[in-house]
Design goal:
- The chain is an alpha/beta fold.
- Among the domains are: 199 residues, no CATH class; 88 residues, Helix Hairpins (Orthogonal Bundle), CATH 1.10.287.70.
- It is 23% helix and 25% strand.
- Strand 58 and strand 59 form a beta hairpin.
- Helix 5 runs antiparallel to helix 6, helix 6 packs across helix 7 and helix 8 packs antiparallel against helix 11.
- The protein starts with 35 loop residues before the first helix and ends with a helix.
């Protein structure tokens, strides 16, 4: 008989055309093509403990029924089972069986659904390259030795509550449907390297006693590792997750590595325990990453990590981490109620960084690039630096500190941080804060300007531009009189974003002038202690302004403050005192020339001209007046007025100059 060989196989092949099944003992045909007597003898031999050799055989439903028999409640035991490259045409139900010896399904094809539920594999089981074209389940099965599923293809598979006592090999496997390992137990090493899960993958409540590797694996749908226990090294390096992934409430007893992993959707690590170092270097999360309530006992490596949708670390506990970042947290970095047990250096780029009630037990260095930062209620157990930098060197938005309410700022040092919109009301030990850098605070409105062609010239301003706090801008925007300033108060750079009240649950209220005066007083002392007298002068001016406008200030004190403000800007505006002094000289000179000198006929005075009055007034202010000049009663009163007010105004002008230039 002429027959075509389908391949060169390592067993004697059936003589039937295009059949690669192994021959029956003492036969030239395989089990499928053998006669009824030969098949019955084969089944009897298998039941008696002989090898069940189905290599290359096409097993249809009838043949499998003969092989399995009428099991009833008893379990069938196969001492040794070999089905390499076999093809199972119909449903293959091996549930409850026991494979006592070596078991091999290498290259087998299951065209119908298959079940290995509650199967016991006493020896090594090989499913290398097997193809399950329909659903297959291994629920509650036990592999007492090594189990190899590398390069296997699954339409959908369930390994729920399965136990792997030896090494579990799932390298380069392909899962076209679901892949569930809920409650699975891996006593030995588990390898899922380069596995491809197109459907949903679930490892909830699984236990990995030793190393497990998902390096370079891909997950096309949702993946869940909730409540898993990883007793050994866990590796997810270069893995890809196209949909949401969850490790909620899992435990990592040893190192975990996600280096260069790509998680394109949400990543949830809530309430996870990391007992050894965590490696997330160069990881990419396409949407939100949640690490709330995590406990990280050892170091955390986040260099070059990118969380495009934000990073949530609220209530997380960093017991030993001392270097977090540099990382990119996208729109939001949440550190609310987090705890850093050691001094930490945190470097992150984010649009918003919230550390409400965060505890830095030994302080730290926070480099938050281009972020809007909220530190309400944060606890600083040691010196803490908040260093503001721009995203792209000198371009882009500066780091903005928006609020330090309820916070003890005694250990806080702010470097190159924008404080234009910062809320200081309710901060403790504000007089001990250290502020470094230029243009940190907002300024009072600029004077209005006249336009002359291409030039804009300032009108005579009501006051000089000075440093201000956001609370004054908010108060003046609601209480200031029309035309009180040359420009508008509360510009966009001083306004508190609405999300702060929504996020912290504390409304942003307009503060009374008394409280604003206390803020200015504390900031003034902080600058004075730092030997920054010119910077302190602006806060002294703000303090006096708020006292002048405060309803709690008495009427008499308010009059004095108004006069002090008008005459010299609280001893800080030299030009006011000098202009007023010049005006007084002009007025006194005119009055002296008109009414101050006695007539020449009655007093013997020479006939003074018009300019003599101005010279006499200037001489009286700067030098000693001519005693031979006879004055009228009005002239004597003018002399007393000039002798009293002239030195006073001159002294106020000199005081203002000194307050501006001293160091």
């Amino acid at each position: 008989m002429s027959r075509a060989r389908i391949s060169s196989l390592p067993w004697p092949e059936c003589v039937e055309t295009r059949c690669g099944g192994v021959r029956l003992p003492d036969q030239d045909r395989c089990l499928q093509h053998g006669d009824a007597e030969a098949r019955a003898g084969f089944v009897s031999a298998v039941r008696a403990g002989a090898v069940c050799d189905l290599r290359g055989v096409v097993v249809d439903r009838q043949l499998l029924r003969e092989l399995m028999g009428d099991r009833g409640d008893r379990a069938i035991t196969f001492d040794r089972f070999m089905a390499d490259q076999a093809t199972f045409l119909g449903p293959a139900d091996f549930s409850g069986c026991r494979f006592g010896g070596e078991t091999s399904f290498e290259g087998a094809v299951f065209r119908g659904p298959a079940s290995f539920d509650e199967v016991l594999f006493d020896d090594a089981a090989r499913f290398t390259g097997v193809r399950f074209l329909r659903e297959v389940t291994f629920d509650s099965a036990r592999f007492a030795a090594d189990a190899r599923f590398d390069r296997a293809q699954f339409k959908g598979a369930g390994f729920e509550c399965v136990q792997f006592d030896g090494v579990a090999w799932f390298e380069a496997t392909t899962w076209r449907g679901r892949g569930t390992f809920i409650g699975a137990s891996f006593v030995g090493v588990a390898w899922f390297t380069q596995a491809s899960f197109d459907g949903r993958a679930s490892f909830d409540d699984a236990k990995f006693a030793r190393e497990v590797s998902f390096d370079r694996s891909s997950f096309g749908s949702r993946a869940s590792f909730a409540r898993c226990t990883f007793g050994g090294l866990a590796m997810f390096m270069d893995a890809g997750f196209a949909d949401d992934v969850s490790f909620d409430r899992s435990v990592f007893a040893e190192e975990v590595r996600f280096n260069r992993a790509e998680l394109r959707a949400d990543a949830v690590f809530s309430a996870v325990q990391f007992r050894r170092p965590v490696w997330l270097e160069a990881v990419t999360v396409g949407r939100q990453a949640h690490f709330e309530h995590c406990r990280l006992t050892d170091q955390v490596h986040l260099a070059d990590a990118h969380f495009a949708g934000g990073l949530w670390l609220s209530h997380a506990e960093f017991a030993a981490a001392n270097d977090v970042g540099p990382l990119r947290a996208g729109p939001f970095l949440d550190l609310d109620n987090a705890v850093f047990g050691h001094r930490v250096r945190l470097s992150a780029k984010a649009d918003v960084a919230s550390a409400v009630d965060c505890r830095f037990l030994q302080g730290g260095d926070l480099r938050l690039v281009g972020a809007e930062v909220v530190l309400d209620g944060a606890i600083l157990g040691g010196p803490t630096n908040v260093v503001g930098t721009r995203p792209d060197g000198n371009a882009g938005r500066r780091t903005r500190l928006l609020s330090v309410r309820r916070m003890d700022v005694a250990n806080l040092r702010l470097v190159e941080t924008d404080l234009g919109a910062c809320l200081f009301d309710g901060a403790h030990n504000l007089d001990q804060v250290r502020i470094e850098g230029s243009d940190s605070f907002a300024t009072s409105p600029l004077p209005r300007r006249w336009r002359f062609g291409q030039r804009r010239l300032p009108l005579f301003p009501r006051w000089t531009v000075r440093k201000t706090v956001a609370e004054e801008h908010h108060w003046r925007a609601t209480h200031a009189r029309r035309f009180e300033a040359g420009g508008s108060w509360n510009p966009p750079e001083t306004r508190t974003p609405q999300w702060i009240a929504e996020h912290t649950g504390v409304p942003v209220a307009v503060v009374s002038p008394d409280r604003i005066a206390e803020i200015y007083r504390s900031l003034r002392k902080a600058h004075e202690d730092a030997k920054n007298e010119p910077g302190a002068a602006d806060f002294y001016y703000g303090e006096m302004e708020m006292r002048r406008h405060s309803p709690a200030t008495s009427f008499a004190e308010r009059l004095i403050l108004h006069a002090y403000w008008l005459v010299s800007g609280y001893g800080l505006r030299a030009w006011r005192a000098m202009l007023l002094l010049l005006a007084m000289l002009v007025v006194h000179g005119f009055l002296f020339a008109s009414y101050g000198f006695a007539s020449p006929a009655a007093s013997g005075n020479p006939d003074y001209g018009f300019w003599s009055g101005y010279l006499y007034a200037l001489n009286m202010l700067l030098l000693s007046p001519d005693s031979s000049v006879r004055l009228t009663l009005i002239g004597q009163l003018l002399r007393i007025s000039l002798r009293v007010t002239g030195p006073l105004l001159l002294g106020l002008a000199l005081l203002a100059v000194r307050n501006r230039v001293k160091r």
